[in-house]
Inverse folding.
């Protein structure tokens, strides 16, 4: 019997229907973005779309599912998905129209990482300080099995990734930072690797704004 924590909100049904109808192999994902001024009122999503689970992310998933890295030179059995990052290299604007850059299976990091805070981890593959921010496990990661789908059953993980007000690091009052890409990461200590990557039309973040990313991983 499901308890109240396992009830799926009605608006999630549409996401699961889209994912179930998209016949990509292995793991799928969906991302929703909210730009707002306070934590209590996110409003409606300003953008949403599929993300790509990159090659390393797929290999990591296989190792964690079976606790085995046979045939691989990488050993990620002690890693967990617990970080995210954002960047400004996900799109360009031509004659007022955003052109979204392609994500690829061999992506290993953000195209142009944006510094969030010096206390956060570096993105291993970029060397840029303070790029990858830890996701709080206290209410920010939801796990559920036997999810709703169209002729499909699957497990859902939802990560809520938040860029708080006063971020990104180094932004002055009255300035705005373009955000047009995001990544989810699996980490061990301060070492991290990209799990999935998404690019979207530019969003402009100011010091008094909050950017919330709801990141769904479906398998």
């Amino acid at each position: 019997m499901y308890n109240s924590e396992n009830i799926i909100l009605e608006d999630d049904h549409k996401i699961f229907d889209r994912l179930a109808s998209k016949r990509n192999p292995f793991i799928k994902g969906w991302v929703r973005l909210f730009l707002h001024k306070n934590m209590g009122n996110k409003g409606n999503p300003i953008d949403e779309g599929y993300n790509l689970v990159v090659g390393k992310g797929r290999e990591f998933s296989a190792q964690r599912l079976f606790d085995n890295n046979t045939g691989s030179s990488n050993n990620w059995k002690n890693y967990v998905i617990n970080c995210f990052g954002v960047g400004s290299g996900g799109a360009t604007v031509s004659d007022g129209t955003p052109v979204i850059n392609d994500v690829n299976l061999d992506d290993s990091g953000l195209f142009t990482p944006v510094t969030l805070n010096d206390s956060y981890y570096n993105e291993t593959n970029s060397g840029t300080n303070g790029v990858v921010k830890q996701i709080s496990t206290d209410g920010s990661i939801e796990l559920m099995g036997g999810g709703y789908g169209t002729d499909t059953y699957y497990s859902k993980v939802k990560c809520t990734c938040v860029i708080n007000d006063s971020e990104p690091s180094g932004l002055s009052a009255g300035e705005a930072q373009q955000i047009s890409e995001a990544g989810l990461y699996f980490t061990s200590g301060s070492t991290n690797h990209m799990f999935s990557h998404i690019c979207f039309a530019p969003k402009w973040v100011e010091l008094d704004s909050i950017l919330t990313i709801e990141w769904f991983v479906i398998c």
Remarks:
- The longest strand covers residues 191-205.
- Residues 4-218 form one domain.
- The two ends are 21 Å apart (CA to CA).
